[in-house]
Each structure stands twice: as structure tokens, then as C-alpha cells.
Design goal:
The protein is mainly alpha-helical. It has one domain (about 1-120). It is built from 5 helices and 4 strands, in the order ββββααααα. The chain has helices spanning about 35-55, 65, 75-80, 100, 110-120; strands spanning about 1-5, 5, 10, 25. The strands form 2 sheets. Strands 1-2 form a two-stranded antiparallel sheet. Strands 3-4 form a two-stranded parallel ribbon.
């Protein structure tokens, strides 16, 4: 999954198996206007990388269970605080948080940001400016 310390992803308009660390299927965004579609695809990549490849968000690999709006975890304050953030795999499906996915960079919960920064500080070197 990692090449030179960086995540590698395949992005396509396919469907199915959406929540896998190495693939981002963005076909469900095809009806969005250009800028919103680009934002949604970018935010999907960010989610898959932060949550599934780096395991830096609350819920991580079990995000579908944690963030389902009708699941038992909806009662947990830490889960609700992350609705509409990078951790939340249901951000786009929920009309209340869809704009976080389509209108710009998706927010990241401060605790998840801290975890991501700590996790990556020793693993990833910044890319060369020449590349």
C-alpha cells in the first residue's frame, strides 16, 4: 500500500467495495457539477487514506458501523462529534453533512488530526520539490 512512505490509491468510477484502503470508487458522484465532484472525489481519497491506510481516525476500519446514523454508536458523543468529518464514512449520504464533502476540504476532528500528525511524523518524509 505504501510507496516511498506514501499511500497509493486507485480512483475510478466503479462501484462496490468502496471502503477499501487501496481503492476509491467515486462513481456515485457522477451527477454532481464539476467543482463539487472534484471536492467529493478528493475528500473520498482523504477519508480512505486517513481512516483506512493510516488508521488515524476514530472508528477506522469499522467506520461503516460507527457512523451509520441508525446504529447504536450514534449515542456516543465522540462519534457524533465526528459526523461530517474525515472519519465519517456516511458524510455524503447524510443530507446534513453532504456539503462538507462537496463544498471544499472536509473537516478533520482535532483529535484525529493530532493522531494523524503523530502517526505520520516518523513514517513520512515530505516529497521532493523536484518531483
Amino acid at each position: 500500500m505504501f510507496s516511498g512512505g506514501y499511500a497509493t490509491l486507485g480512483v475510478s468510477s466503479g462501484s462496490g467495495g468502496k471502503h477499501t484502503a487501496g481503492n476509491v470508487f467515486a462513481g456515485n458522484y457522477s451527477n454532481l457539477p464539476g467543482a463539487q465532484r472534484i471536492n467529493a472525489i478528493s475528500n473520498s481519497i482523504i477519508h480512505e487514506t486517513a481512516a483506512h491506510q493510516f488508521g488515524a481516525t476514530a472508528g477506522q476500519a469499522q467506520d461503516q458501523m460507527f457512523y451509520a446514523r441508525d446504529g447504536g454508536y450514534r449515542m456516543w458523543p465522540d462519534v457524533r462529534a465526528r459526523y461530517g468529518t474525515v472519519a465519517d464514512s456516511y458524510s455524503y449520504a447524510d443530507p446534513n453533512t453532504r456539503g462538507n464533502v462537496t463544498d471544499g476540504p472536509i473537516p478533520i476532528h482535532p483529535d484525529d488530526r493530532k493522531t494523524l500528525q503523530n502517526k505520520l511524523s516518523d513514517e513520512v518524509e515530505p516529497p521532493d520539490d523536484d518531483n
